[in-house]
Design goal:
Two copies of one chain form a homodimer. Chain A has about 240 residues and is an alpha/beta fold. Chain A is built from seven helices and nine strands; from the N terminus they run ββββαβααβαβαβαβα. In chain A, α2 packs across α3 and α3 crosses α4. Chain A starts with a strand and ends with a helix. At the A-B interface, α6, β9 and α7 of A face α6, β9 and α7 of B.
């Protein structure tokens, strides 16, 4: 892991850009940390520059609670090399949505499964590197979409102790099956009127999770309209489980 | 309104039993209130003595946030005179549930509609009396089941500014229609595995509410298993809207 830039934000949070092999990312650590900080991995739908304002807001909120936070660029997004197959699947999805047609499961599989297969080992490699830093300790939480990546991580990565998942993307049938194997505490956010989201599928997915402690918070509004208080509820969830 | 008993709880909260005409109730006011306190009406499924431990816990939590809280015995419950028609409807409902049969809409109507018709004016009369006390101010919130009573109150009683509703009882079709007329901020609690509750009906009801700000919090467990943190979230909701 190589740090490529470093700046203090006005609230004292230290923001460092890094690369790990070909993966670019950002690490935020709290202004004053006496002990190694617990860590929250911030997932997002891809496009680190475009997503930066929302990511830094989530990182500041995490830092205020004593958590470090880190994100990486999603495979095939932002400045990372495109995959022709993924671009094709994305175009097929867009075409179906614009035509108002039901989205074929095969298209969802073609788009999401390779993403999960690539992104999860990347998160795990980044986690290895982050946990070797003296200022980062455990436990570790995952927060965000792409929800399928969160599901797989929760199943295969025992260092992740709790997850806040954003129900707002298409989920392959196979990931519903994996969801039954998830046992860590979950806090699921659903935007009730999310235009790009199938509400019933999101409720079915919530039902499928094997976790004994799982909470669904549904709020009004579209994909990016998560209210401030819902973010605070999510931060409190990590406060209960990562300390 | 006649106070019939008065005691200080160990946290300084003042608990007073009262009667208003034939309606018995309990009022809790915070230990130290410099200004008239906002008020939360605590709804419950009937049986004030049986429900007391849970009600006093909710009242203490409210008082800690600076709210007064009040509850009344539900019409036809506890020591109040029974209605033969309501008892018959309750028996019909129980018989259907025990036989594992679908519950007839007509039975739900027969059980719930007269309850709503009686309980809502009672709450309004109690609200008149409570708001005339110098230690009680506005705004006013309603918290609890019977959710149909909460729906009607939210529609007809303009002094209620926000409501926490427990989705855990049968709701007549007519109340779904009234739900569309509700416009105040709502915080709806759903126990995902509530044995006596139709989950899909609860989700449909949440969808029906006309409120621009409405939040659904679903947690695992049965009817009485609402986790401590869910109660705290509900208290914060009132903190945002009643101050």
């Amino acid at each position: 892991m190589r740090f490529t830039s470093e700046q203090r934000l006005d609230d004292g949070v230290l923001e460092r850009e890094f690369t790990l092999g070909e993966i670019p990312g950002i690490l935020w650590t709290p202004a004053s940390a006496s002990a190694p900080a617990p860590l929250i991995l911030l997932g997002h739908p891809g496009g680190l520059h475009k997503m930066y304002p929302r990511l830094v807001a989530r990182a500041r909120q995490s830092a205020a609670e004593g958590f470090a936070a880190a994100t990486i660029e999603l495979t095939g997004s932002g400045d990372r090399p495109r995959s022709a197959a993924a671009e094709q699947a994305r175009a097929d999805l867009r075409r179906a949505l614009e035509a108002g047609e039901p989205v074929d499961e095969e298209v969802v599989d073609r788009l999401v499964l390779p993403l999960v297969d690539k992104a999860v080992p990347e998160w795990q490699a980044v986690l290895d590197a982050l946990l070797s830093l003296p200022e980062i300790g455990g436990p570790v939480g995952y927060s965000g979409g792409v929800i399928s990546i969160g599901i797989r991580l929760a199943v295969v990565e025992p260092r992740i102790s709790a997850a806040v998942l954003f129900a707002g993307s298409f989920v392959p049938r196979a990931l519903f099956e994996e969801a039954r194997q998830v046992t860590i505490p979950l806090h699921v956010l659903l935007q009730w009127d999310d235009e790009g989201n199938d509400r019933q599928a999101a409720l079915d997915l919530f039902d499928a999770f094997g976790s004994k402690e799982k909470t669904l918070h549904a709020n009004m509004g579209g994909h990016t309209g998560v209210p401030q208080f819902a973010g605070e509820d999510a931060a409190r969830f990590f406060g209960r489980h990562l300390k």
